[in-house]
Structure formats: structure tokens, C-alpha cells
Design goal:
This protein has 308 residues and is an all-alpha fold. The protein has one domain. 74% of the residues lie in helices and 0% in strands.
């Protein structure tokens, strides 16, 4: 009897699910780390990248990975700007005032944003229904944030920061998924971390000069998770899933991330699940899900799934 072999699509979805499960703790654990005020958002957003960069440098050096070549450095810089600098720093500042459950639902727009970025990056032409539902998802996310803040006049800077984090992550995910087919999954995030390290070291130094960090053991444990898993190990699985692809289908796995994050926020932070949060989450996830599913009109070519 021949052993059962997973299709490229199932393998990509499996790796993607593992990555999303790791990422689902990011929002509530960021909230835990910033809650007491002992660690500044700048420290959390930058220092966790420094820790991850040290791990990445050790991994790259010990396995003697080849350097990216030519234009690959520019693409590594795009990945670094999106997922090493942009998303962590913006969410850290946003979650100083926004509840973790609120942040998780606004970030639920990320699957559609990633799909849009992947489509544009690949020069493809999805059906009109894809664009209609992607737009509907964006509107649903904005309306949700406005209702949570007390109306359109109640939109806070934290919401703008969260939307900016979504854009940054979507660009970093799409470019990283493509680059992982050339450099390898863990190698891509490792080079991005190393490239961004000088900037993040400077930002960490600035945060330390402004205020030395302090925290309880639980808060430092949350920071450790953000540095080791959210910034490093989680991307091993996530970029491998995106590289195996198809990228737009794998991005659907992110739809479970806000649901998990809200559950973790209720469990660990005792945040109350309100009807606006639940209904807003359902609306954003539904729109993103339909938009991503509308993308597929032809079969994905397994020939493009080679990844180290």
C-alpha cells in the first residue's frame, strides 16, 4: 500500500494553519506586555525584533546559508519593512489603548489585504466579485472600528495604527511568500530580521534611554513569546505555507486568527465578548472569506510550489 501524500494545496494549508496558530497569541500577549506600562510600546516593538535577529543570525551562520543576490536584497527589505518593523511597532503602540479583542477584529481584514497584495504582485486578474467583497470587507472593518469608538467621530489613532499594521503585514506576507520560493521559508524571515537589525537596535536604544523596561514575570514571558515565536518561529511555518501555495488560498487560514485571538483575550485578559465585537468579527471574516474564495477560477500549478 502506497503512503498517502498530501497535495501541494493541503500541505500549504497545513503549514499556514500552524503559523496562524502561533500568531493568534500575538495581539493578546502584546496587550499583556504593555498593560502595566513598565515596557514602552517602542521597546516591545523593537527589542523583540532584536532578540529574533540574534536567533536568525545564529541559524544562518550555523547552516552556512548563501547571501541573497542582487534584487533579492531589495525584496528582503520589503519583507523587513512590513513584518519586522511595520506590523510589530504599529500594533504595540495601538494596543496601549485598544483592547486586544478590538485589535484582533480590525486585523481580521488582513486575509483580504494579503490576497489583494498577492494578486497585484502576481499581475493576475481576479473576477469582479473578488474586488467587490474585498471593498466590502474594508468598509466593514472601518464601520466596526467606528462603532466601537463611539461613531465616525470616535475613531482613534489606535484604529489608524491597526489599519496601517494590516497594510504593512499584507505587503510583507505577499513578498515574503514569493521570496521564500527562492531563498527558503525560514531563510527569508531570517535575512529580513538581520537586515532590519541595525534600525531595531537603534530604536531599542532610544527606548532604553527614555525609560528602562520593567515588568512582572508574566509580562516578560509574554515578551519572550513575541520575540521567539511571533517574530521568528511562527514565520517558519507561515512563509513555508505561502510558498507552497497557492498564496491566496493559504491566506484564508488567517480568518481563524481573530477568532482565536478573541478567545485568548477573553481567557487570559478577561475581556468581555460584546455583541458589536462578535458581529463585527463575523462581518469582516465573512467579507474576507468570500473575497478570497472568489479569486479561484483555475487550478493552481503545482510546479510553482518548490520550496526549500
Amino acid at each position: 500500500m502506497k503512503p498517502r501524500v498530501l497535495s501541494p494545496s493541503r500541505a500549504g494549508l497545513g503549514w499556514g494553519l500552524l503559523g496562524v496558530a502561533a500568531f493568534s497569541f500575538t495581539v493578546p500577549f502584546t496587550r499583556v506586555a504593555v498593560e502595566s506600562g513598565g515596557m514602552s510600546p517602542l521597546f516591545i516593538g523593537s527589542a523583540r525584533a532584536v532578540v529574533a535577529a540574534l536567533l536568525a543570525a545564529v541559524a544562518l551562520a550555523s547552516t552556512r546559508q548563501r547571501l541573497p543576490r542582487g534584487r533579492q536584497w531589495g525584496r528582503v527589505a520589503i519583507v523587513a519593512g512590513g513584518v519586522v518593523v511595520g506590523f510589530p511597532v504599529l500594533t504595540s503602540f495601538a494596543l496601549t489603548t485598544a483592547p486586544a479583542s478590538h485589535g484582533a477584529v480590525v486585523i481580521a481584514l488582513l486575509p483580504a489585504a494579503t490576497a489583494v497584495t498577492a494578486v497585484l504582485r502576481g499581475h493576475e486578474r481576479p473576477p469582479r466579485s473578488f474586488w467587490l467583497m474585498a471593498t466590502a470587507g474594508a468598509i466593514a472593518a472601518v464601520v466596526f472600528a467606528a462603532l466601537q469608538g463611539g461613531g465616525l467621530s470616535g475613531l482613534h489613532w489606535s484604529d489608524l495604527l491597526l489599519f496601517g499594521a494590516v497594510v504593512a503585514a499584507a505587503i510583507g506576507y505577499a513578498e515574503g511568500g514569493l521570496l521564500a520560493r527562492e531563498l527558503g521559508a525560514w531563510q527569508t524571515v531570517s535575512w529580513a530580521l538581520v537586515l532590519a537589525a541595525p534600525l531595531m537596535i537603534v530604536l531599542t536604544g532610544v527606548s532604553l534611554a527614555q525609560r528602562p523596561p520593567s515588568g512582572t514575570p508574566i509580562e516578560w514571558a509574554a515578551f519572550a513569546y513575541l520575540a521567539v515565536v511571533s517574530m521568528f518561529l511562527g514565520f517558519f511555518a507561515w512563509y513555508r505555507g505561502l510558498a507552497i501555495g497557492p498564496m491566496v488560498r493559504v491566506s484564508q487560514i488567517q480568518l481563524v486568527q481573530p477568532v482565536l485571538s478573541i478567545c485568548w483575550a477573553a481567557l487570559f485578559l478577561h475581556e468581555r465578548l460584546t455583541w458589536p465585537t462578535v458581529l463585527g468579527g463575523i462581518a469582516v471574516i465573512a467579507c474576507a472569506g468570500i473575497a478570497v474564495r472568489a479569486r479561484f477560477g483555475s487550478e493552481f500549478s503545482p510546479g510553482s510550489t518548490r520550496v526549500r
